[in-house]
Each structure stands twice: as C-alpha cells, then as structure tokens.
Design goal:
The protein has a domain of 94 residues: RNA-binding S4 domain (Structural Genomics Hypothetical 15.5 Kd Protein In mrcA-pckA Intergenic Region, Chain A), CATH 3.10.290.10. 35% of the residues lie in helices and 18% in strands. The protein is elongated.
Length: 138
C-alpha cells in the first residue's frame, strides 16, 4: 500500500468527521496536494504536502503514513505532521475570540453590575477602534 485516495486518508486521520465532508472539500477545490487542486479520487503518497482551506485559514500537513481504516486519534496523529504556519493559528484564535460572546470574568464574580456592564461596553467600543483610519468619520 503506497497510495490511497485523498478523501479516504483525510477521513481516516481524523482531519474531517466524515468521508463525505472530505469529498465535498476536495470537489470545491479547497484541498491541494503539493499545491495542486485535487479531486476526491486523487491519490496521496507518503511525503506529499496537503493544504486545506477551511474557514479562511490554510492548514498544511505532511503525509507520514497511509491509513485505510479510521482509527483512534492517538494512532491517527502519528500519520501526519502539522506544518500550519503560526500566523494562521493566530488568525484562527483571533477569529474565535471575535466570534465569541463570552465575557472573560473571574469565577465567583457573579453577574456584572450596571457599572461593570457600562465599562465593558465602553471597552468593547474602543478596543477595535483605529485612530489613524482615514475612513473613520466619527
């Protein structure tokens, strides 16, 4: 066994939850093998570099082993090396932070008072404000 279908490999190493999702990503052109777009039926070999564009972030992996069957995460993570740049990981953390509605409060603080809530609103309003923005007419 020296080659396997890309959709099957992505599913077996637990990058995608189902083989159908992996196939759809390949069909949409969001999966590249060695910087070339691929179909779900494309074959992947040991040593290939795979790029996956998922939610505005490009993940990169190097194939170390080929798996035909889905196995536990502890085995699956030994089959690839994550080459995703640190800048992409920081971008993911920023996106998650901006999309979350969770306020970071110390446990045991209880609900915010009216004063606390106003301070939070002022902080949020000014947090992403850029002073030298030429398109800011405030």
């Amino acid at each position: 066994m020296n080659k396997i279908r890309i959709d099957k490999w992505l599913w077996s190493v637990r990058i995608f939850k189902s083989r159908n999702i992996a196939s759809n990503f390949c069909r949409l052109g969001k999966v590249n093998i060695s910087r070339r777009k691929c179909k779900p039926s494309s074959f992947v070999n040991i040593g290939d570099e795979i790029q996956i564009k998922k939610s505005n972030i490009t993940y990169s992996f190097k194939v170390l082993k080929l798996l035909e069957i889905r196995s536990s995460y502890s085995i699956a993570r030994l089959c690839y090396k994550d080459l995703t740049p640190l800048s992409e990981i920081k971008k993911l953390k920023t996106i998650k932070y901006l999309n979350s509605n969770f306020e970071n409060r110390n446990p045991g603080m209880g609900r915010p008072t009216k004063k606390d809530r106003r301070e939070i609103e002022i902080f949020k309003k000014n947090e992403f404000k850029i002073d030298n923005d030429p398109y800011n007419f405030d």
